[in-house]
Amino acid sequence: MKKRDINPFGLRLAPDLRERVEDQAGKHRHSLNTEIEMLIEDGLRWRESQEKQAVA
Question: Domain span at residue 29?
Answer without folding.
Answer: 15-55
